[in-house]
Amino acid sequence: MSSMDTSVNLQEEYNKTEIAKILNLLNEELVGLVPVKSRIREIAALLLIDKLRKNLGITAGSPGLHMSFTGSPGTGKTTVGLKMSDILFQLGYIKKGHLLTVTRDDLVGQYIGHTAPKTKEVLKKAMGGVLFIDEAYYLYKPDNERDYGSEAIEILLQVMENQRDDLVVILAGYKEPMDKFYESNPGLSSRIANHIDFPDYTVEELLKISKMMLEEQQYQLTTQAEVALTQYIAKRKEKPLFANARSVKNALDRARMRQANRIFDSRGQILTKKELVNIEAEDILQSTIFD
Ligand SMILES: Nc1ncnc2c1ncn2[C@@H]1O[C@H](COP(=O)(O)OP(=O)(O)OP(=O)(O)O)[C@@H](O)[C@H]1O
Ligand SMILES: [Mg+2]
Known about the structure:
This protein is of the alpha/beta class. 55% of the residues lie in helices and 10% in strands.
């Protein structure tokens, strides 16, 4: 029998992994992020097919899987990084499947000779998993020619190239500084196969995220409160330091506090379950954003 006649069962292989479950969960748990989700699906498909090819003795260089996540604050970069490590583990691409989040200070030392051991220590801990470098652009300080950041980048580059079967590196940060960072470090940029951009959420998406967050904590918006929250989000979006889903999360924490306060002030009443669950419009409208 020629080797071309050998076959594998895609469905069987697919079922062996938990990948379908993870992709579905990803879809359900994360609102919006359509381009991000489709890239993840593509990566998962590539890895699965690669595995099948290997089973049949068709070899291909293992695809580089280093990634770049760019986007505004609170758009889900860290959250997706965690899911990504799950997926890569399920597909057998990484052996341990943990995610280690670091920033510049974990990699770069203050004094001469301190950076290399620091960076190597971090890389050792991350082996078999995902190294998530948050605010990666801080690694490179062009104004300071004695900066030890470039030493860390050198070591990182070598490992990204030579040990790509054992480690996936994700560089994350806000779009503009990351673009500048890559311009100054083309070697790094070109070793990253997947540049994924996280779009800002629309008001509708943020409302949907709010409802999911509340549901998780067994709270509910009244119809009026939902109107108020929609107005709140539209206003908050235009203010400085807006951080997408994180701003919404913080706003909901404050609304819960106001709800508790409101109920507390009405002491003496017998409380119903509904009253304890409901967030009312006034719990939202008391925000200073409406002043
Ligand atoms: N699409 C989404 N659906 C539901 N919840 C989300 C979504 N995106 C983000 N969140 C929630 O919003 C919060 C902030 O997300 P996350 O920390 O992943 O953002 P980030 O992009 O890493 O932000 P930063 O750039 O500031 O580090 C988390 O609590 C996360 O669960
Ligand atoms: Mg983050």
